[in-house]
Amino acid sequence: MKTIDRGNRFWLLGASIVLGMALTMAACSDDKTSDITDGDASQPIAIQNIIASPKSASPGDTLMLSVIVVSDSPNVGDIPTVAWTASGGAFLENNQATVRWVAPVGGVYSVTARATNSINSVSSTADVFVGGVASVVASQAGAIRVLPNGTDIYYSRTLNNLALGVEVFSVMAGAVGDAVEIPAALDGVTNDFLAYAPDLSFEVHAADSVVPGSDTNPVHLYLGDFATKSFRRISSGAPAADRYPGFADPDVSSDSRYIAYGGMLPTPLAIGADTFDVFVYDRATPSRQNVTRTHSNHRNAFPTWSTDHRWLTFVSDRSARGQWDLYGMPITGGVINTAQASLVRLSNTGGLLVAGSIGTVGFRKPQMAWNPVTPTLAVVASDGFLYLIITTPGGATQVSAGGPSPDNLAWSPDGSMLAFQATVIVDTPTGQVATSGVVTVSSNGSNSQVRVARAGDTFADIAWSPNGQWLVYRATRGSSAWFEAFDLDGSTVSVPIPITPSDPAASALNSLGGYRGFMSMRPAWGSQNILFYTTFGTGAATVGIRSVDVSGLTP
Hints:
Layout: E1 10-13, E2 16-19, E3 26-31, E4 45-53, E5 62-71, E6 81-86, E7 90-91, E8 98-102, E9 107-116, E10 120-130, E11 133-137, E12 142-146, E13 153-158, E14 168-173, E15 179-181, E16 189-196, E17 202-208, E18 219-225, E19 230-233, E20 246-252, E21 258-265, E22 275-282, E23 287-290, E24 300-305, E25 311-316, E26 325-332, E27 335-336, E28 344-345, E29 368-370, E30 376-380, E31 386-392, E32 395-402, E33 407-411, E34 417-428, E35 431-442, E36 449-453, E37 458-464, E38 470-477, E39 480-487, E40 497-498, E41 503-504, E42 524-525, E43 530-535, E44 544-549
Parallel strand pairs: 2-34
Antiparallel strand pairs: 1-2, 3-10, 4-5, 5-8, 6-9, 7-8, 9-10, 11-44, 12-13, 13-14, 14-15, 16-17, 17-18, 18-19, 20-21, 21-22, 22-23, 24-25, 25-26, 26-27, 26-28, 29-30, 30-31, 31-32, 33-34, 34-35, 35-36, 37-38, 38-39, 39-40, 39-41, 42-43, 43-44
């Protein structure tokens, strides 16, 4: 067990989080006496870094390990010697600046390089992760969900990466890579409108036969049943003149019975007269209901079910002046109280929860994530800040939980912490720099901590291990991207450790507005510590879904 000194201090200062950076490797130096005259004297050496290529390995792979030795002087004629040791594996040579190391069985291994010249001797240690990486799906893919057996997954894929006319398939992939399309695809599916049932028995998606989001073509919701490999339409609405209804943003209740969704019903008049309401589909009946039909306001969107199923929440502009906040309909005994008099305002962001005009392309659902244990909704408002809406049977309390620019919200399995990516300020030798960081905050909005931040790197696609010990996320530096893991209590490693090889980061498939704009890229943790993750690149070998055995992270 390693002893970890966590001396970092974190502060939340208005819109910035300041991080005192820690060293990323252990180093030590032994001074020696030199016989060289003062005029030609060498200078002490130091180890700047140890680089592994690739960043991680499968058992039996050969990694190139390089040590970067620096000095304030060229030290002509005083070339350092290097010696390598490791806690496992085998070196094919161990006395060069770059050596080959054959990875052993899965786990976390320490490699140490010791450099010596006539003045001093210095050593540095870095951790390398070994886990089995395998290809599961060899095509563009995203929105991964692990089935209850823990070894098979559902995912979505497209036949192209264009922003319009995207074809999305709900697919099951076995551990050996077999794939079956479930259900049949529909042209023009927009995957931001895709939702999975909590029990993974079905999915719901929106489909437009021509252009997604256009009011000159109908956009309906379809339920895809995984058991029967079939789908059926669950939304209904009549056209007005040459304009058609549009339905989107499905959310499935915790018991997988009800599907709430938003819908636009057109009128022959100007677009301002269109009604935007919240609908609920009951799979058991089956039947559908416009639950905001009797309200005087018809500017409602983005419904969700609270964790305890006491509220059906949605975003509403009650004043019809572009002031958007979160409202809730009480649920008692499974029955929704649809009366306008019973509607409760749950947030108070000054109307800034959503920006833009409803019915336009720029009007988009804010990032939302319900705590899996307690009825707390994390939501990123249009002002760029994170709010926690802590609901009770009678209302809610709102807590400001940080910013700016939170992204990739992910609750821990026990609901105690929320992890997200945000802009943070880090101290560097040349001054403070704004960069991407991974931050956690307690479920009540307190104890905000910057967990990972490196100037120049960006982070996304955050996920938790099932035991809540590890945060996994995609790190991007320049043209390369990889997944790494952060040990929250430092019992295994004291700094983030790469757990996958690097893949190309720059691609039309994952650029804004392209493939990534329609797909969740969050990894999913299966049974026996198998992590499924999406990769992108320019060749078939680097596109699709891979799995990596991360059981070696546990001591």
